[in-house]
Amino acid sequence: MKTKRLFVIFIIGVSGVGKSTTGNLLSQQLSIPFFDGDNFHLEKN
Q: Which of these, 26, 18, 23, lies nearest to 36 by C-alpha position?
């Protein structure tokens, strides 16, 4: 029986270093979804 492995990749760093760009490119190469952390907090933060 073949087992499917699940994983999560976190890309962290200071503002403006290309986390979103890197995450998008990585998700395309690995054919996995990319979720930007900016979409999960309040606008005012």
A: 23
